[in-house]
Specification:
The protein is α+β, with helices and mostly antiparallel strands and 157 residues long. Helices cover 57% and strands 12% of the residues.
């Protein structure tokens, strides 16, 4: 029986899952970027031998258009290509001819910001139903006062 790791490798190497592999390789590229540059990038994709970075801020476009940033990205692409050849896989970055930077529209930026804030977990409210197994009399009294407050607060809302 094959291990899960080899099964996942086979899935990524399957041509019908090319988009999945390209998403994984783009996420690896973004993770290997410097944090100052990664902050500006919403996502990246590969289309027609062109690596497209979609940015969230105009300052990111000027920052990434610097020669040093472009050369850093090209070096990272070479490293990812060498890693793919070492693993006997085909990289999506092999025949990249152009690197393009595009800005998101304002409504798309707000949508991404809303998605990030929507991930905040809502906590359930305490009802005051708990067992007070404290042996210290002072703490037991404090827990009972807390129970009264929680029950009163739960009823009023």
């Amino acid at each position: 029986m094959k291990s899960a790791k080899t099964l996942i490798k086979h899935i990524y190497n399957d041509p019908s899952y090319k988009k999945l592999r390209s998403m994984r390789e783009c996420s690896l590229l973004l993770k290997s970027l410097r944090p100052e540059l990664r902050h500006y990038v919403a996502f990246c994709s590969v289309k027609n031998e062109c690596l497209c970075f979609t940015l969230t801020h105009p300052a990111g476009k000027t920052e990434l258009n610097n020669d040093s940033s472009i050369s850093e990205i090209k070096c990272l692409l070479k490293i990812l290509n060498l890693k793919a050849k070492k693993d006997m896989q085909i990289s999506i970055f092999e025949n990249i001819q152009k690197i393009d930077f595009k800005l998101l529209r304002k409504d798309q930026i707000y949508k991404i910001a809303e998605e990030k804030t929507a991930k905040i977990i809502k906590r359930t409210r305490a009802k005051g139903d708990f067992i007070n197994s404290c042996k210290d009399k002072k703490l037991r009294i404090k827990f009972e006062e807390l129970r009264v407050l929680l029950k009163a607060n739960f009823v009023t809302r």
